[in-house]
Amino acid sequence: MECEEKVEKLLSIIERVASGEYERDNWRGILDSVAELFEADIAAIGETREGYVLYKKFSSYADRFESYDPEEFKVPIWRSALGEAIKKGYIMVNDYQNYEKAVEGWKKMGLKSIIVAPFGDRDVFGSLAIGRFREGRPFTEEDGKILRSLAFIFSFIVREEIEKRRLMERAIKDHLTKLYNRFYFEDEGNRELERARRYGYPLSLIMLDLDNFKQINDRYGHQKGDEVLIKFADVIRKNIRRTDMPVRYGGEEFLILLPHTNLEEAAKVAERIRESFSRVVFREGSEAFRLTVSAGVASCEPEDCALENLLHRADKALYQAKREGKNRTVVFSHQGVN
Questions:
Q1: pLDDT tens digits along 253-282
Q2: Catalytic residues, which ones?
Q3: Domain 182-331, what fold?
Q4: Rounded to an integer, what is the distance from CA 330 to the centroid of its chain?
Q5: Buried/exposed 275-299: b ≥16 CB within 10 Å, e otherwise
Q6: What percent of the chain has pLDDT over 70?
Q7: What fold, for 3-167?
Q8: Torsion of CA 4, 9, 14, 17, to 10 degrees
Q9: DSSP state letter for 302
């Protein structure tokens, strides 16, 4: 790309960012232009979380990734290219396959070369990255300086987006487990039921309660109890779809609202969660212990479904599971709880 054309493309990107174009497609169109500017295959924006950078905003090239999970490709900040980029303002790696700090997942994807520029200085909150999956001319120091400048411009907007999202998450999520809270469920749950009625798809609810949880708090203290709740929330997340709604309903009681899911399918999800959690070992000093969970599963026809009715049915099934000895899944039916 000629110098004049590159400057024109760069100015166009800055103008589109300033006009708020990124709001329409979650940065995709702008990142496509960034990749084109550098004659790269891919451009991405990452955000920091717990010492890692997770890339969740991509240019269109990422559509080729069949099963991309940000968690599997997360980048440790201080033991990666980003850690080195913080010192200089950017880092350029033209042989990523032999780079000592390469992330294994990206190596397997065939990444050949990268430039990474951080958002922020010492207080790094993300990064702008470009990469090539094909052999070609190496990136240059000029490329690195241009990307650093773009990262500086993007950083103000990305920071604002992150702060807005975190404020929203604090309002709708449980502070301990990071699952949705009861208020969000009551609001969004009714909207999901309305969509189910409108489009005629099945919808199910799982209600879960940790067995004998009070004994954990009494014996080991509330800090250990919190550890159990956090781990159980993690088990839930690993066994549901992204379209499902996991909720900490109160105390040790949890809900999962499952759109496009019939009663039989929901029961399988509940059993998967129950069995997974039963294998988790907790430790306190020299002691080790396991916990179990009971589940009640309910469903309803879209044309005859109210959130309070669905909750009542799941609660009734859960009560039956507790009464029958706990550590089991019970399914509600109109003929009686099964």
A1: 999 999 999 999 999 999 999 999 999 999
A2: 252
A3: Alpha-Beta Plaits (3.30.70)
A4: 29
A5: ebbeeeeeeeeeeeeebebbbbbbb
A6: 97
A7: Beta-Lactamase (3.30.450)
A8: 170
A9: G
